[in-house]
Amino acid sequence: MSSKQTNLLQGTLDLLILKALGPGELHGLGISRRIEQITRGTFLVKPGSLFPALHRMEEAGWLSSFWGESENNRRAKFYRLTKAGKSQLQVETEQWTRVAVAMTNALTAT
Amino acid sequence: MMKLWSRIKSTARNLFHKQQVETQLDDEIRACVDMMTHERIAAGMSPSEARRTALAEFGGVEQVKQAVRGHRAGVALERLWQDVHYGLRQLWRNAGFTVTVILTLALSIGANTAIFSIVNALMLKSLPYPHPERMGTIYTRVTGVRSWDERHKVTYEQWALLRDNVPALTSAVSSSRTSGVNLEAGSHVQYLQAGRISAHYLDVLGIQPALGRNFSDVEDRSHGPNAAILSYSLWRNTFGSDPNVLGHAVLLKGAPYTIIGILPEGTSTPLNAGIYTALQLGPEGEGGGTNSEAITRLRDGATWQEADAEINRAWSHRAHRYELDDDPSAQVTYHSVPLQKGETATLRPQVLALMLAAGFILLIACANLAGLTLVRVLRRSPEFATRLALGASRWQIQKQLWIENLLLAFLGGMAGITVGFVALRGLLQLLPEHFLPVATVPLDGRVLAFTLFISLLTSVLFGMFPALAMRKFRLRSAIASHSATGGDPLHLRQALIVSEVALTVVLLAASGLLIRTLIHLQTLPAGFDPAGVIIAKASLDDEQYHNAATFRKLLSQSTSSMRQIPGVQSAAVGLSLPYERALLNGVTISDGRAAGQHGMTDEVYVTPDYFAALQIAVLTGRSFTDADGPDTQHVAIINQTFARKYFHGADAVGHYINNDTRIVGVVEDVPIAPGLDATAPLAGEETMYIPAAQADAQLLALVHVFFQPSWIVRAAAPVEGLTAQMQRALASADPNLPFSGFYNMRDLMAKTLAMQRVEVALLGTMAALALLLSTIGIFALVANIVAQKTREIGIRIALGSSIRQAMVHVGAPGVRASTLGLILGLILCAGALRAMRSALYGVGVYDVPTILTVMLVLASVTIIATVVPTLRIAGTNPASTLREE
To answer: Which residues of chain B lie closer than 8 angstroms to A72, CB-CB?
Structure first.
């Protein structure tokens, strides 16, 4: 895998995590499942990518975490968006939309 | 902003609460795996199957954890810390190596720190006055038969023109140095150093008195009212910080002086005196000659170009242009020079030479350390091979090596600062008082920055070779054998030894020449007998001793009381002594072949016993007697140089000089600090002695401002309590006249040769240090060859080689390197030592005894450094060395 692709995927992964946490708090596995669901199975996020990303984003101040009870009464680490995370979601959404429209236009141009 | 803060917080947490962060990561991942397992059980899998597939989907718990750790904030810092930690452990495990390196660095960096702090204090640090860049002094540039460009002292005429006709500058003058005076305040009598300064002197320095005021123009006028300004320390120590002393009079030089000001705490002037009086320069007497130092401050809005133009205009139209005396066709111009440069000009070449020598020491140390670290890297080949085989990158190993070098340099630098501090204190102790024109030599930020810089520089210099060696590191051969870098490092190490020995030879030869110079000066034919002579000095810069009769009475009473002391053979007084600088005066030859010839001579007034007390031989004619009084025929005794110069070896006795003075004797030359032609620190020079009883009031008033006469006592054997008895004898003639100190002739010589002694001590220390480092270098080289070749030596001995042959075989590379270094060093000397010519007296630049001594010294240390490590071979047992591997 070339480094170019990694960067692209990493940027995408951040946006997907932010988006997945938009409605409310989730634990790691929940985030993974939710991304799978909202991308209709296109992206399967492996733990090896997910957890480093979560820790990195928490250190950047976009996410905050707390320990809570899962749906089947297990202790789990939950993540939610901070204020900075919410504005980051907005910024990245706008950026992505611009890129997506531009790319679509470019690829459909005759 | 927010993001940065969050990262700093996380970095701190990751570094300082590592355990907690790890436990939480553990818990989080276990919970995730548990949940995945649970999902599968809920979907109907067996628990063990569920766990297996969950783990498979998760993709390796440890890898995930490692991935998280790899992205943590502060991970680079943590890795660096791990490397440092590992490096420290390595250094700890090789304590011998580490101590050698740190000691070498401590000595070499310490030497550099000490010398640099002097360079810093003299040349880099600003003068401790406001706007030092606006302060200057004036250089005279003469182009003609003899060209020169230096600070020259000025006459009253020059000073008056400078003050009145150079509006671009605030100017002031002062005496060129302080002189000892007696201060009486109440019942307290004290001898201290007084400086004489003109009006506006303190304005030029930008110093405002803490109490009172500066000298006014009225007080500075010739024969103006007597006023004094106290230094802060004198005010505190003698006057108990009493502010009411202002306006009161103290008895200074036997006359009342009104205290008009007190300098602020912590201020110093270039004169650095205890008390200041007004210079009161006039066109006659002192002001008629070049006796004063000028300092200037650029006025607001003026430029140095304007100032220089004004000085040249003002000084070019003087009645007496003494600069043209020797060469009327010479071109004379004047220019301003920054005050700091003017004040330190005489010391600059010496200090820079020392800095160069210190630089040599650093290079020698680096060459040694490069050799040591190279060997150490080779010894660690197996370790690096293992690390490379386990997947470490070459960059990681390089990084590790550099980190260890930096650690060593850092530790060495810290030790170097300590050594430098101690060395600097010792050095300043060694210097005579007021030797440096600065009050303090601090170890300030700039010095510390310099030390840090050279520490980094050394680590780069000595780390470079091992790092280069690592690049050629071959994994395959390293694993196969125990040592394996491409190429033979022996040649590289030999080259390092050659260069350090070469530098050592230069330093040894340079200090050898200085030692020879000092020996030459110290063993000049004395012309008198210094053994058993005790000197005491007192200041006669005192109103009452301007009277010739009072002066005569003091001398005759005090010397006759001193002669009464049991054990004393003779007692006399003289204005100046051998080894000292003497009064310069004009002389005219009145008759004979040289009639009408005018020149300068040293002039010394003496009491009749002077030549007996010092045992200066009277060659022809007679000595002075008590019959040579103020009202009899004026007489003089001249020395041989004087007789040779003006009477060409013919008998001078009976001839007249200065119209009415009859020469009655000729005496042996004695070495003095020459004032006429200062080409050497000590030399014989034309001197004329006159009886103290015939010195007139005008001469007495003038000379005692500059000179403190000496009481000379000769005793056959040491006399118990002699100094106290001498003081009592003086007190019997004048109870308020303290001696400033007691000396022997050796002290006087040491004072005159202070510069040479300091040069020898400093450069000698550096040369010794260089020699020590080179010896260690050769020793390490040979010792290492012995260690590496144990097996080979074993085979050689087993095959019938004698132990001596084996020793020669192993020691040869050390001897070869040292010999090559010696040859290279001698070639370097041929060029480098010529720069020393101006510091050498009585010895040539290419001095055979010096060079032979250097070769001999180097040969001996080379032999010791190669033989000692090879002695181990003698104890080698071939059988056991062959079994070893």
So the answer is: 35, 38
